[in-house]
Amino acid sequence: MLSRVANHIYWMERYLERAENTARLIQVNTHLLLDLPRNVMLGWEPIIDMLSFRDVFYEQYKEPDEKSVIKFMVTDTNNPGSIINCLAAARENARIIREIIPTEAWELINNLHMTAKADGQSVLTRRHRFSCLERIITSNQTITGLLGGSMLRGEGYAFLRLGRHLERIDMTSRIIDVRSASLLPSVSQEQSAFENIQWMGVLKSLTAYQMYRQEMRIRINRSDVLEFLMKYHKFPRSLSHGLMQIGKCLKELPNSELIQENVNALSNKLEKLNTQKLPQDGLHEVMDDIQLGVVKIHQSINEQYF
Asked: What's this model's pTM, rounded to 2 decimal places?
C-alpha cells in the first residue's frame, strides 16, 4: 500500500475517534457538574488539560467557564483539537481516499461534518447540547460499524485499526491522568461520599460504566477502576486491550519489528504495574510514562510507513 494512502487512513480514523471522545467528555462533564455538591470544585478546566490545549485556550479566553470551554472544544476553528476541526480533518482525509473506503462511509463522514457545523450555535446551550453531541457520538459509531463490516481485511484496514486503538489508548491515559488529579485529591469526609460519582464520570467518559459493573460486580472505587481501565484486556478502551490490538495489526504489516518492540515495552510496563498499591502521587508519573510510550509508538509508525 502507498504510504500516502496509509497515512490518510490512519489519520482519518484518529480524528474520528478524537471527535467522538471529546464529545463524550463534554457530555459527561455536563452531567457530572449537576450531580456534584457545590463545595466540590471541578469546573471545565480539566477538559482543556486532558487534550493539552491550556496555552491555546488562554490566548483567546480569560476564564475557563462553561460557555468558553464548550465553544473552544466544539466550534473554535483556532483550536486544532476542537470537534469541528477534527471532523474537518477526518473529512479531508476521507475525501482523498474515497476510492479506498466504502462510498457510504465517505457520505456519512461528509454529512457528519456538515451537521456538526450546522449545530455550532445550538451546542453552546445546555438545552440542545446533549442532542448535538449525541449525534456526533452515534454517527461516529455508525461509521465505525460500517467500516468494520465492509472493508477488506488488508493493510488498509490494519492502518485504520492502528489509528483507532492508538487514539483510544492516548485518550484513556489522559482521562485517568487529569481526572485522578482533579477529582480525587485528599478530600474531606463530607466530600468523600461523592467519590463514587466522580469515578463514575471517569468510567462514563470511556463508555465503561456498564461493563465495569457487569464484569467487576463490586462498588466503584479508585483501585478497581484503575485496574479495569488500564489492565482489563477484555474491555475495548482499556490500555491493555488497545496495545494487544495494535500488536495484532502490526502482524499484518511488513517491517513492523521495531514498532512491535515499542508496543511490547509499554505492554510489559503495564503488566508489572500493581494498580491496587499505586499511590495517588505516583499515578501521574505512570500516566506520563504511558503517554510517552504512545508518542514513541506513533513516531515509529510514522517513520516506518509514512
From this structure: 0.92
